[in-house]
Design brief:
heterodimer, A: 6 helices, 9 strands, elongated, B: alpha/beta, 26 helices, 34 strands
């Protein structure tokens, strides 16, 4: 499906297709175009439920989240992978619990905070993080990402390469 | 809407996301506190010195207001320049965009009121709208000039000001707040009051007297310089005072050339984009400015008219464009000559020399002039003494300059004269003698060439709020890297010759790379172990859950909630909104109050429960889990015997979800998990050479605490891995280094640990872990590395010190048991008394606590 408009444009620009608008305005080809590959969405919709796409696992999930939340991609080692000012991003492909939070918070510098994104948030993790670092947050993907970034998501599809 | 509930966590989140500086965070915090009680037009003013970054306060405030559900904000600017800058700050495509800003507002100016997007946003109560308006467009229409802001616009069919006045959540942010209190003050205030804002937040560097009582936060220039957010002003004079304009301009050009050389060397060695230093000359009259720019273009000075930019009140478009372009790498301009003071908003970062035709009085050091030269081109101090300073040329003799210095500080920098300490700079890194009272001016007669002005070191407190001895408020102890324990420099006064000599010394130091000393038996690079503990947990999928268990849970749920699930209604009552049925089981804590009369249709109960499960913290939102959730929900409802007849309400869905997620959560918490300890090795130093912008002091010249300077590089260490090191404290670190260096052949080499050395140890602190950065590594026998820490005597029983010691002891054990680490590591904790009594490394090790 993606190739069809490209083929058309190629023939217009090359001058081999002079029908349609080209014919009407007397354009015999020339000029050019640029094609931008937009990555697949990180989300699937099934029976009205927004779900994480199957491919969105491991590094690709982290990269997608980093792009969506507008962090600079900076894979410093699991699970830290992004930075935005003094805020760091930690992405968990699975569950995040109190043990992980305790260890992550210890790796923050005094004046840093973090956004933790996980697919499952275990009991107690949010409370512990709030007590260890006031400016830090846990986000469940995709639930909180969609709520947070709905407006942005409309303008820009989440792309990963 | 009045009163936005103060949210400290939100401020911290915003502050880290926008990478805000401490004073800006404090200002945002005070503003947020004041907003909590703001009612109908409360004025809230924050005063911060030029160059600290007020833009970030405005940006942070926008994010804060957006998160607090404010939907209408007006930003007032004093003119087009600042309006353009503000629009750039809010535009994600612009290079001046405030990185990290999250609110993504619909930005509206008077010019685009008519476009469709704006009309849509105005009608959309959820859109976050930021109106960026110049004060001129806001002032009420008068007979001469009907202001555009008051014309009706198509989509809403009313004037913008009418729309704004109707908003019940409007907050006004007024940039450069002092500028609105001149001749048009009454008009301005009337215009703002007409908008009926909740609050008016004014940001300024120089508060107008009439707004003084509304100031909630103040941060003056002296503090900004002392805290290293801006350049240090250097007052430069000739010993004999200056005679003529040409001499002064020649001095300016010589200093500019010295800055340029320092900049090129710095950018080459650190591989950064070159920033061209520029001189800023303030003239009295237009003809004078023209004369100066001609003189500067002459062959004996800059020698090229393209390098001089004359900006007068009748500014041409081309001149203004070149002024805007000043920071561009391809700009040729090296000197800007101006008559009127260039106003706020012209905030380039590459002004490095300031000269004035009129004699140096306090007005030269006002925010308007000095402020133009204060911003740091790399966003922070570089450690290079030429790039962190702006030279301000004085007409006075050096002696007169020194005698008037204190008055200048008082008026221009906001520091009180009695707080400012003056010391003569002689030997690098050796604190000179203090100059008090008449001795200051007299120093010039005694041949002083350079005098440093400092504020006393700030008070440092620990987490418990107790004051900490400055010697001990170091990295390792508090785990903070930016405690300002050293005296804080706010200005320098020097002769032209002394400044040129300083520039030459700095550039020479910068060119010479500091390389590691070769010590026998200490091959480089070092392999430094890094211990990380990772948690692996088995994932729990809903698919693993036995549906029979879910059914059993449903049975239990049904029994617990029997009264509400079996009875149709307990009470009916009527209020303004109609008849409600109150279903309540008073004996059960989990009571259900259904304000909704009609139970959920049976065919939606299951999908509602699935949706709730998927959105809960306990279940991941994937296709596998969704399919499993359908099975679990069906089994649960089967167990609960939910049929068409059951009066199942939304509240039941919520309670059922809670029962299920608690049950799943307990299973998840119980899934097996393992701590995986990983030991990796990091090569250091990499690269081995370091460049330093501060000419090092001689370590042998430091004989007591009062001569020592915190963080200053000292040279002359023979057994150090580098011959130049800096220290956070004298009585332990510097003394320990002396002991190690003087220990003879008992030591092969020692390494002063800084944040550049990748050696950190995680230790337990309260509910979390923290990173511990020890002081030294000592290599005594080949292959034996000791981590060495010095502590004050009364801290040897401190919980934090003990926690760090225990963590280090465990670290040493872990590392030594690793098959990959080739060296043997040990840990030494020495008290101040032990350090004092020890003659050498061997006796220190014998008396201290050691682990290996």
């Amino acid at each position: 499906m993606a190739t069809k408009p490209t083929n058309h444009l190629t023939s217009y620009v090359g001058g081999s297709d002079t029908g349609g608008v080209s014919g009407l305005v007397g354009w015999g080809g020339g000029g050019g175009f640029r094609s931008v590959q937009v990555g697949p969405s990180m989300y699937d919709v099934s029976d009205g439920f927004v779900l994480l796409a199957d491919w969105a696992t491991n590094g690709r999930f982290a990269k997608g989240v980093s792009a969506q939340l507008d962090f600079d991609w900076e894979p410093m080692g699991n699970p830290f992978c992004g930075r935005r000012g003094r805020q760091r991003l930690a992405v968990f492909d699975g569950a995040v619990g109190t043990e992980e939070i305790r260890s992550l918070a210890g790796q923050l510098d005094e004046k840093e905070s973090m956004t933790v994104v996980a697919q499952v948030v275990l009991p107690g993790a949010e409370e512990l993080l709030a007590s260890l670092s006031k400016g830090s947050r846990i986000r469940k993907a995709p639930r909180d990402l969609l709520a947070d970034g709905t407006r942005r998501a409309q303008r820009r599809r989440v792309t990963t390469t | 809407v009045t009163g936005l509930e103060y949210d400290e966590g939100l401020i911290e989140e915003i502050a880290t996301r926008l990478d805000m500086r401490a004073p800006n965070i404090a200002a945002l915090d005070r503003i947020a506190r004041a907003l909590e009680t703001a009612v109908s037009g409360t004025e809230i003013v924050a005063t911060l010195a030029t160059g600290v970054g007020k833009t970030y306060i405005a940006g942070g405030l926008l994010d804060y207001l957006q998160q607090q559900n404010v939907r209408n904000v007006v930003i007032i600017t004093p003119g087009n320049t600042i309006q353009r800058k503000t629009l750039a700050n809010l535009d994600p495509r612009h290079r001046k965009f405030l990185r990290g800003l999250q609110c993504r507002p619909v930005v509206i100016t008077v010019d685009d009121i008519k476009t469709g997007t704006v009309g849509q946003a105005l009608n959309d109560p959820t859109a976050f709208k930021v109106f960026v308006l110049t004060v001129q467009s806001l002032l009420r229409p008068n007979t001469k000039d009907n202001r555009r802001a008051h014309k009706p616009y198509e989509d809403v069919g009313e004037g913008l000001s009418t729309y704004l006045a109707r908003c019940d959540d409007l907050v006004v942010i007024a940039d450069e707040y002092h500028t609105y209190f001149g001749n048009n003050a009454d008009q301005f205030q009337a215009a703002v009051q007409d908008l009926h804002p909740t609050a008016v937040v004014g940001l300024t560097a120089t508060p107008h007297l009439s707004t003084q009582q509304h100031v909630v936060y103040e941060y003056d220039l002296a503090e900004a310089i002392a805290d290293k957010y801006v350049k240090i002003p250097v007052l430069v004079a000739r010993s004999d005072g200056h005679k003529d304009l040409r001499t002064q301009l020649a001095d300016g050009v010589a200093l500019l050339d010295a800055k340029d050389t320092a900049m090129r060397t710095y950018c080459d060695t650190t591989q950064q984009q070159y920033v061209r230093p520029v001189m800023f000359v303030v003239a009295d009259k237009i003809d004078e400015a023209a004369d100066i720019s001609e003189m500067l273009a002459g062959p004996d000075l800059l020698g090229n008219p393209d390098q001089v930019l004359l900006v007068t009140s009748d500014q041409s478009k081309e001149a203004l464009d070149r002024l805007d372009d000043l920071e561009n790498p391809h700009s040729k301009v090296r000197a800007v000559v101006s008559v009127s003071m260039l106003k706020e908003g012209w905030d380039v970062k590459n002004i490095y020399v300031i000269a004035a035709v009129r004699p140096l009085r306090s007005q030269l050091l006002t925010e308007q002039v000095l402020g133009r030269g204060l911003r740091l081109p790399f966003g922070r101090r570089t450690g290079n003494g030429m790039l962190d300073t702006v030279e301000v040329l004085s007409h006075d003799s050096f002696r007169d300059l020194l005698s008037s210095a204190e008055a200048l500080f008082l008026r221009s920098l906001g520091a009180s004269a009695e707080d400012v300490d003056a010391t003569e700079a002689t030997e690098p890194g050796v604190a000179g003698r203090p100059l008090v009272g008449d001795a200051l001016a007299g120093a010039a007669d005694d041949g002083a060439q350079e005098v440093l002005f400092t504020l006393p070191a700030g008070e440092v407190t620990d987490e418990g709020g107790r004051t900490v001895d400055l010697d001990w408020a170091q990295d390792g102890y508090l785990g903070m890297d930016d405690l300002v324990a050293a005296p804080r420099q706010i200005a320098i006064a020097g002769t032209v010759d002394a400044r040129l000599a300083a520039a030459a010394a700095i550039t020479a130091t910068m060119r010479d790379a500091v390389v590691p000393t070769q010590h026998p038996g200490v091959p480089l690079p070092l392999f430094i172990p890094r211990v990380t503990v990772r948690l692996e947990r088995d994932s729990l999928s809903l698919a693993q859950i036995d549906v029979t268990d879910a059914e059993a849970l449903g049975r239990r749920f049904s029994a617990d909630n029997a009264p509400t699930l079996t009875r149709k209604a307990i009470e009916a009552f009527r209020d303004d909104e109609g008849v409600h049925l109150d279903i309540k089981d008073r004996s059960d804590e989990a009571s259900v109050r259904a304000s909704q009369t009609i139970p959920m249709p049976f065919d939606t109960i299951q999908s509602d429960l699935v949706r709730r499960l998927l959105e809960s913290n306990a279940v991941s939102q994937t296709l596998t889990e969704k399919n499993a959730a359908v099975r679990v929900a069906a089994a649960f409802l089967l167990g609960a015997k939910v049929t068409e007849e059951t009066p199942w309400r939304r509240e039941h869905g919520r309670l059922a979800t809670r029962a299920l997620t608690e049950w799943i959560g307990a299973k998840q918490t119980a899934t097996p998990r393992r701590e995986v300890v990983e030991i990796t090795q990091v090569k250091w130093p990499d690269p081995p050479e370091m460049h330093n912008g501060t000419p090092p002091g001689d370590r042998h010249k430091i004989t007591r605490s009062s001569e020592f300077t915190v963080g200053y590089p000292y040279k002359g260490w023979t057994r150090g891995l580098y011959d130049t090191c800096s220290f956070d404290a004298y009585s332990t670190e510097f003394r320990l280094a002396e002991l190690l260096d003087n220990s003879g052949p008992g030591i092969r080499a020692w390494v002063r640990l800084t944040r550049n050395v990748p050696l950190t140890i995680a230790y337990l602190s309260g509910a979390g872990t923290r990173s511990y950065y020890p002081d030294f590594i000592v290599i005594d026998e080949p292959g034996t590395y000791w981590i060495v820490e010095g502590k004050r005597d009364d801290e040897m029983r401190d919980d934090v010190v003990l926690a760090k010691r225990d963590a280090a002891a465990a670290w040493v054990k872990t590392v030594n048991n690793s098959g990959n680490v080739q060296e043997t590591w040990g840990y030494v904790l020495a008290s101040e008394a032990v350090i004092k009594d020890a003659a050498n490394w061997a006796s220190l090790k014998a008396a201290a606590q050691t682990f290996r």
